[in-house]
Sequence to fold (558 residues):
Amino acid sequence: MARSRLRPSFILAGIAVLALAFVLVQVAPDREGSGAMGGPDSHADLVALFGQWREFERPAFMDGVPDYSAAAMARQQQELPRWQARLGSGVPESWSVPERIDWHLVRAEMNGLDFDHRVRRPWARDPAFYVTIFAAESDVPAHEGAVIHGWIDLWTYDYPLSEADAAELAGRIGAIPALLEQARENLADSNARDLWLAGPRAFRGQVRDLDDLAARVAGTSAALDRSIADARTASEAFIAWLEEEAPSRTGPSGVGRENYTWYMQNVHLVPYSWEEQVTIMRRELARAHSSMRLEENRNRHLPELERIASAEEYDRRLNESVDRYMRFLDEEEVETTEEWMDPALRAVNGSFTPAEPGEIRNFFSEVNYRDPDAFRPHMHHWIELARMRVDPHASPIRATPSLYNIFDSRSEGLATGVEEMFMHLGLLEGSPRSRELTWIMLAQRAARALSGLYLHGEVFDMEEAVAHAMKWTPRGWLPDGALVRGEQSLYLRQPGYGTSYVTGKVQIEELLSEYAIQEGGEFSVKRFFDAFYDVGVIPIVLTRWEMIGEKDPILGAN
Fold:
């Protein structure tokens, strides 16, 4: 059988959580509030509560279908305050800082479910929430955006499928038609126009993935073939229903400025308001554009970077890029390197995609095909995921990816931040024109983030958001309006994700400067990054607390 339907690090942590929770529950029965401020008495009690909380957050399943009906969600919302009471209003100061950080992570997840019930309500507003099939692994610890329980990660299965795996997939995929029937009822009152219009695009992707799977496993199992065909038919019918209903859906999709600020500071633990994030994005957008123009002037007598032109050149240059990157990390004393890092990067090099002269590929391919070294630092994502598998954090709460994409500013902020940081450290030495690429990537991320903020703040409608992101992406490298709509739809579905690339980067830069001042003559880049990684993939305000002992005001008094 397949090893699991979840990524390995998640499984290990999940097993640890559930096992410890089971043991502790035997000696510490459920109490409404036993410790200081009504919370758990010890960190071990907190870990047990975390395991139980995750079970509560997961909806009940009936015949393989998660129950997101109005009645089920109303019951969950009514029961949520009891779980918040069990966590308590604060954490004892006698706990260590790492233990107190874990308490705040659990509180952030509970706040996330509270916000979903009060504001976001993806099961009732967001048709794309009901997409179930995921063909490829994400480069962050969990799926990007709101994802339905019962999702199917096709990439976790071994192919050709075993008989047992084929039977399992047949059952899981076979539940899709019933899920989409439930979805029609759950979404009946949705008036979120932009989210509604994103639904058909998302389900066309599911249809393509089902078609690819059907071709890949054809003949393996008659039951699986039927399940895939039935799921495809149901997905097509759901698309038709969404398109038929679309004219009647006319309301806003964003959460609004005040809700956005509350969500950032209480769920994602990002210490900025909506207004402050607008200021940050505008500043970073201007800085990126002006820096790019200055680099271009400096390099005006140098030839333009040529795009990779063949499969052979692609494979050679991508592999050489991994070689250089690993040498750079080691020789420049950037961070401690491990033997599993190189294969983690090499495994996601991808393959060559032909293009006509002047034809624009995917935005990041336009960067990668000119100099893989410029984009290589962003692929640090895959080192992070490998670390979570090979050397998971000792705390089960941190070893398990946080719900609601709470990890986004840490994960995307690191991958974005090291592009510029490593450029300054000399990664692109000897290729001046490659520095232009770093600024182009930052400009694109700031532009699309600002569009997403303006969507949530009801400054832009979707087409204005798309036009803004395309206009402010340098060199016309973002001409595909459909691609931009897809990105902006994700940022509507998951507030904070679009800004996380830049807000995370800014917070890491600030932390580096504070850490350096505190370390004094003992500071080194390697000491910083090694300490940073040791804390785990958690919000930067919590990382900062553990690394330099400074607690951010958004965390409250405890």
Notes: The chain has 24 helices and four strands.
